[in-house]
Amino acid sequence: MRILMCLLLFLTSMVKLQAQDAGDDDVNQNGWKNTGKLQFLFNQSAFNADWTGGGTSSIAGSFAADLDFNYTEDRIAWENSISAEYGLTIQENEKFTRKTNDRIELNSVIGYEVNENDDTAYYSFFINAMTQATKGYVYATNEDGEITRTERTNMFSPGYFQAGPGFLYKKNKVLTLNVAPSTARLIMVDDMFTSAEDYEDGSYFGVAAGESRRYELGASINAVYKLKIMDNITMDNKLLIYSNYLDKPGNVDINYATNINMKVNDYISAKLIFQAIYDDNAVGAFQIREVSGLGLNYTL
């Protein structure tokens, strides 16, 4: 809970700082405004046989796409985003190519202004969907010292779907905060995993033995905060929080991600990614992911 409060405090405490540079960003024009960014990151390391410090040669690459489709019309604001990330790494003398990242996420929120000519507060309805593109594996070493892998996840296994009415707050296109106290949630999985003989009931993303889905009802908070650190350095923060009223509401699911983009020119940039996930149904501990690299980017 302390981590949750710190994240919320971070997102709200920086609004005034960033709002000073927002300028004309408050001016809304009716119609569609579509933007997007494509980025490819590359990492490589190599060691020859005489390198005494030790090390393993490897090649890694990742692709990311962020697309935004936003519509405004009088008192209506409709914001849609699609994010996709996929990465692979190959290590010397390694039997398997491993994923470093695999995520597909869709967000859509439509809002209606609470008060006319006030474009900060809206009644809202949101939809969120998350899954991955390919199989995920758990790796181990057998008695012969060989690396083995066991399939753990796949596309729509799990797949998360959330929807519900709520209240949307926007500040200078820097902070977007959506609070939905009545959120329906569906978790989909492949029943191949939950029907296994050694399956422990509820251990696969909370889904019961032999079942392929789990229904929940709870409260959710979705927040996006964008910070301009310097002229060529930006920081995007995204926080998703969910509490299930029906089962252990105190075990709050947290998904926090920050992307720091350092622009070299219109086509080359460096990127740092940090993500922390707490999902009691999946692991019951924080999952941490860090990615950095120099890449090519293209802005739509």
What are the defining features of this structure?
single chain; 300 residues; mainly beta; Outer membrane phospholipase (ompla), Chain C; 12-stranded antiparallel β-barrel; two-stranded antiparallel sheet; flat
In short:
The chain has about 300 residues and is mainly beta.
Write the layout of secondary structure elements.
Elements: H1 2-13, H2 15-19, E1 31-45, E2 58-73, E3 76-91, E4 98-113, E5 121-131, E6 136-141, E7 147-153, E8 159-171, E9 175-188, H3 191-194, E10 213-230, E11 233-244, E12 253-263, E13 268-278, E14 286-299
Antiparallel strand pairs: 1-2, 1-14, 2-3, 3-4, 4-5, 5-8, 6-7, 8-9, 9-10, 10-11, 11-12, 12-13, 13-14
Describe what this molecule looks like in 3D.
This protein is mainly beta. The chain has one domain (2-299): Outer membrane phospholipase (ompla), Chain C (Beta Barrel). The protein contains three helices and 14 strands. The chain has a twelve-stranded antiparallel barrel with strand order 1-2-3-4-5-8-9-10-11-12-13-14. A two-stranded antiparallel sheet has the order 6-7. A hairpin with an 8-residue loop joins strand 11 (233-244) and strand 12. The protein starts with a helix and ends with a strand. Keywords: Signal. InterPro entries: DUF3078 (IPR021428). This is DUF3078 domain-containing protein.
